[in-house]
Amino acid sequence: MKFNAVNGIPSMLLNDIKLCHPCSVSKAEHRPLHSPSGQIITAPGDAIVADLMGPLPPSFDLKKYVLVIQDHLSWLAAVIPLGDKADAKHQLRLWMIRFMNVTGIKIKRLRTDNGSEFKNVFLSTFLNEHGIIHEASIPYEHHQNGKIEHTNQSILEMARIMLIASSLPRQLWPYAFQHAAWIFNRNLCSNEKLTPYEIIAKKPPSLLPLRDFEAKGYIYDHLFQKDLSARAIVGYNLGEAPDSKGWLFWIPD
């Protein structure tokens, strides 16, 4: 007994202390499990991380999930609203193809959880064809994909603030998420000296086209009648239009 605090315990018992089964099962604690491999990431594309958020309240176009894809080194993040979890594998494949084609960067690893939206024959076939290693995190070990969990929270908070600050319907949340990701990619992350955009694009981003979410705009009405009718319609900015040079506006009925 420590410090001889009590008497009467045979010394043989003190020297024969064994594992206590009831103590082990009742006092068990979860401790982070660190990967023994310790893969070192030194360049963009060394590891791409993907995660799924949701379900969220249905949007006007029935989106309920958000697929977040991120380059581990640069922090560059993409946000893709989904109507169904099963769509994740198709959108993830398309994003990786575009990323490699546009940037010329080879993707070496994909990191996800063990969800069926990521662990399936469709995605495995694509990864094998491109020599991409799929690393799945252990269940309940969310810290293994800690960076994208942090990114999810940052984008979610930005989107929530924009929706609360605006008078727009909450069903427009997919556009708030995408606008938040646009801003996220043009901000410094952690201790980085460059933005995610510049690390990938090799040039600093321009914020000149940035407009506030919900900023009022006047959209020319190409169908206006050539009389005394108004030539413009009032709309509210939802962010940059994907795959085109312009901005999306919501026009209330």
Describe the fold and architecture.
The chain is of the alpha/beta class and 253 residues long. The chain folds into two domains: 48-201, Nucleotidyltransferase, domain 5 (2-Layer Sandwich); 216-250, no CATH class. Helix content is 29%, strand content 18%. It is built from seven helices and eight strands. The strands form two sheets. The chain has a five-stranded mixed sheet with strand order 3-2-1-4-5, with helices on both faces. Helix 4 links the parallel strand 4 and strand 5 (133-136). Helix 5 crosses helix 6. The chain starts with 10 loop residues before the first helix and ends with a strand. The mean pLDDT is 86. This is Integrase catalytic domain-containing protein. GO terms for molecular function: DNA-directed DNA polymerase activity; endonuclease activity; hydrolase activity; metal ion binding; RNA binding; RNA-directed DNA polymerase activity.
